[in-house]
């Protein structure tokens, strides 16, 4: 099943070549007749039979578009021939899907190109008007008269247009086959999106290949030249490598010019960027950047040698540093022995101080214990006083509660009117706040309504 798409692609290419040869052969007689027509128009003749000879030339030119119209049908028949010979070992369903994709793609390509051809034919317009009626077969050569005056100006014949159209169709079909080989599912969409720029892209690649040979060529020109075209995302990311490498090269060069030495990390980043470009063989072959890739590979090797030299220097510095560390270790060992002696002497002195300090601490502990005992006695005395005060407060609360109970019992014995009179007298007292007076008035009103 994997071999079938390749077979169909080869058969499609062969069919396009066959169509091109057939259409070119069909257009040759038309081209000869058209040239004879131009010669007869260019030479002035008193004989009026010359227009009759010119009447036949447009008919020959009119036959040439028929060959153009037949070319898509022939290209449409080539996939059908491939459809009749499926491989037995492949999966039939996948083969049918591939054929359907190829058929629809070929039809779309031929339709789009034929529409473009019709548009160009309609824009150019005919050079002579022919009356096809058998009774009055007259030819108007008013528009072809300027051709007789300007014999030196090159004219584009129908044969030239046909050949140009066939070449355009052939290039478009070949480009579609390339798109199909790269991505079968999205081939038609990508072809439709980028076919118009294909020729311009080829010219840009050719111009870029010539610029690579110049001494002032820099890697950023690859990005500026190709970034204007619609490319695949993976190609854009690889194309970005050249601009990033150029920026890193400029940064390193600027540091050298200003007297600074780039650190190893910066050089390693540049090395990695150059390695990416040097390993992108398929991408460079696709866009004609093989010479630039070789130059980048040379830069990568030179930079690798520089980094190896730096690594060697760093290793030598590291060895010297290790020797210095060994000498430093010996010196520290000697100082450590001297410090041990001082430490022993200090330990003896410290032991004496510890004994004196222990005696002092013992005295402080006895004094602290005595202070704690005095504090405890004081706390006990305060606790007793607090208990007495609490008992006193409790007695006062009991007395107050008893008085309240007596007042409540007395109030229960009073009538509503007596309570209202009592509240009214209480309201008239001046020592009450406004809130208390308001509350008593509300209570009095409620009692009066009872």
What is the H/E order? Answer: HHHEEHHHHHHHHHHH
Question: What kind of sheet is the major sheet?
Answer: 2 strands, antiparallel
Determine the fraction of residues in helical runs and give it as a percent range: over 70%
Distance between the termini: 107 Å
What fraction of the residues are assigned to beta strands by DSSP? under 5%
Domain count: 3
Radius of gyration, CA atoms, in whole angstroms? 54 Å
Q: Your description of this structure?
A:
The structure is a single chain. With 450 residues, the chain is mainly alpha-helical. It folds into three domains: 183 residues; 110 residues, no CATH class; 37 residues, no CATH class. 81% of the residues lie in helices and 1% in strands. The protein contains 14 helices and two strands; from the N terminus they run αααββααααααααααα. A two-stranded antiparallel ribbon has the order 1-2. A hairpin with an 8-residue loop joins strand 1 and strand 2. Helix 3 packs antiparallel against helix 5. The protein is flat, with a radius of gyration of 54 Å. The chain starts with a helix and ends with a helix. The N terminus is likely disordered.
């Amino acid at each position: 099943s994997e071999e079938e798409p390749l077979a169909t692609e080869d058969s499609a290419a062969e069919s396009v070549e066959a169509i091109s040869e057939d259409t070119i052969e069909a257009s040759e007689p038309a081209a000869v007749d058209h040239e004879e027509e131009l010669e007869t128009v260019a030479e002035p003749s008193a004989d009026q039979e010359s227009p009759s000879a010119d009447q036949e030339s447009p008919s020959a030119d009119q036959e040439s578009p028929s060959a153009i119209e037949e070319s898509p049908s022939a290209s449409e028949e080539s996939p059908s021939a491939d459809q009749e010979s499926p491989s037995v070992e492949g999966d039939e369903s996948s083969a049918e899907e591939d054929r359907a994709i190829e058929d629809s793609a070929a039809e779309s390509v031929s339709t789009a190109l034929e529409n473009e051809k019709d548009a160009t034919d309609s824009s150019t317009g005919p050079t002579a008007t022919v009356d096809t009626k058998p009774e009055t077969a007259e030819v108007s050569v008013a528009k072809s008269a300027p051709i007789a005056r300007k014999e030196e100006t090159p004219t584009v014949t129908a044969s030239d247009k046909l050949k140009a159209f066939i070449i355009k169709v052939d290039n478009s079909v070949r480009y579609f086959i390339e798109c199909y080989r790269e991505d079968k599912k999205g081939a038609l969409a990508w072809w439709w999106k980028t076919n118009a720029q294909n020729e311009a892209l080829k010219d840009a690649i050719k111009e870029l290949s010539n610029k690579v040979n110049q001494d002032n060529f820099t890697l950023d020109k690859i990005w500026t030249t190709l970034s204007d075209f619609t490319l695949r995302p993976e190609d854009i990311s690889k194309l970005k490598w050249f601009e990033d490498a150029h920026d890193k090269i400029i940064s390193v060069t600027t540091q050298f010019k200003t007297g600074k030495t780039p650190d190893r990390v910066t050089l390693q980043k540049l090395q990695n960027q150059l390695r990416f470009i040097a390993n992108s063989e398929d991408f460079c072959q696709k866009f004609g950047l093989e010479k630039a890739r070789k130059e980048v590979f040379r830069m990568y090797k030179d930079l690798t040698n520089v980094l190896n030299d730096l690594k060697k220097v760093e290793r030598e510095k590291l060895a010297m540093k290790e020797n210095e560390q060994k000498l430093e270790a010996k010196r520290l060992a000697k100082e450590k022995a001297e410090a041990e002696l001082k430490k022993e002497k200090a330990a003896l002195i410290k032991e004496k101080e510890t004994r004196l300090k222990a005696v002092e601490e013992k005295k402080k502990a006895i004094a602290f214990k005595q202070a704690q005992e005095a504090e405890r006695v004081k706390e006990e005395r305060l606790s007793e006083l607090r208990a007495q005060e609490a008992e006193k407060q409790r007695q006062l609360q009991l007395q107050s509660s008893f008085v309240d109970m007596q007042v409540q019992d007395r109030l229960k014995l009073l009538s509503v009117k007596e309570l209202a009179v009592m509240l009214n007298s209480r309201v008239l007292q001046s020592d009450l706040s406004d809130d208390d007076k308001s509350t008593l008035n509300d209570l009095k009103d409620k009692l009066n309504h009872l």
